[in-house]
Amino acid sequence: MSQFRERKKYLFTSESVSEGHPDKVCDQISDAIVDAYLTVNPEARTAVETLATTNRVVIAGEVSGADSISYDMIGQIARNKIKQIGYTQQGFHWEDANIEILLHRQSADIAMGVDASENKDEGAGDQGIMFGFACNETEELMPAPIYFSHKILRLMAEARHNGAKEYLRPDAKSQVTLVYENGKPTKAASVVVSTQHSEKISQKEVREIVRPYVLKSLPEGWMCDEKDFYVNPTGQFIIGGPDGDAGLTGRKIIVDTYGGAAPHGGGAFSGKDPTKVDRSAAYVARYLAKNVVGAGIAERCTIQLSYAIGVSKPISFFVSTIGGQVEIEKLEKVLQELVDLSPRGIRKHLQLNRPIYARTAAYGHFGRKPEADGGFSWEKLDLVDELKRAF
Questions:
Q1: For this structure, is 229 an active site residue?
Q2: Is the pTM of this model over 0.85?
Q3: Catalytic residue among 12, 15, 19, 23
Q4: HEC-encoded secondary structure of the chain
């Protein structure tokens, strides 16, 4: 949103989708399979794509490094994930959904470029550009619209799982529009929530079920006017999930990152092991940007990395800041000294060869709390002291 900051007042919107959204069902299945492979072999390679539609799931892609994982096991992983999300409806049920598996080994040509040898370090798993971003709008150093959009749906899902709201169903979307004044968010201009629900309740009841989760998610006094609070604008939302709309892995990349407040390189994360820089380099770019903002060096920081397949070092590294007084060239140099940005260096620094990915596949990969087992390691602020000393 840096291009808007010279404006005194403007609106900005971000959306989120729940764990039961068809695309997110697919992301979670793909990442649950990644975790299974990394549990057996931390060096396993995966590029898993999932499609879901009415009572059918198709899993395709490339895997290697864990031959002990059978198709039956993969099918059970998918069923377990669908059950965990909460799908027991006629058109999509964890017990009787038809699951088709079309996986094969990773291409030898790709493996040759990625694998380390006597003459070269491990190379990037693909070419591409990746971005990381952080800003001081929230304690989590995330843009406020996407952070609040995620929070609304996460609270609703928690209530559904613990039985507090029996009439809510898994599929849902949220959208939060905030008013920015002098570059800072000040209140909500509008809030949209569409949630799948039981046929036993009215739309008025759905609205009142949703309301407290919106109020709890937004700062006190930020709630929009009643006329700008939209719940199930179509009138009802009973048919949902993959039965209502087909889902695919990697189709919610803006939801996964910064809600459109920062650039995205275009590559999806879910289904990919950490040798794929689409995933690992986007994580390390967020890590570096967050530490820059966390150190008080800037109010906003955007970082771009680019890679060539089979080449170990990034072919470009770009940093842009707003609200900081440091020399950018020096900042770029210091950041590259603090972290080895080769694929191997990233995986080692952030300890990415762990089964920590299924949990990332709903409610955003960023703005989460680092976990004791290494989950969300890219959210740590452990470079802050070194950056403060350097500047």
A1: no
A2: yes
A3: 23
A4: CHHHCCCCEEEEEEEEECCCCHHHHHHHHHHHHHHHHHHHCCCCEEEEEEEEECCEEEEEEEEECCCCCCHHHHHHHHHHHHHHHCCEECCEECCCCEEEEEEECCCHHHHHHHCCECCECCCECCCEEEEEEEECCCCCCCCHHHHHHHHHHHHHHHHHHCCCCCCEEEEEEEEEEEEEECCEEEEEEEEEEEEEECCCCCHHHHHHHHHHHHHHHCCCCCCCCHHHEEECCCCCCCCCHHHCCCEECCCCHHHHCCCCCCCCCCCCCCCECCCCHHHHHHHHHHHHHHHHHHCCCCCEEEEEEEECECCCCCCEEEEEEECCCCCHHHHHHHHHHHCCCCHHHHHHHHCCCCCCCHHHHCCCCCCCCCCCCCCCHHHCCCCHHHHHHHC
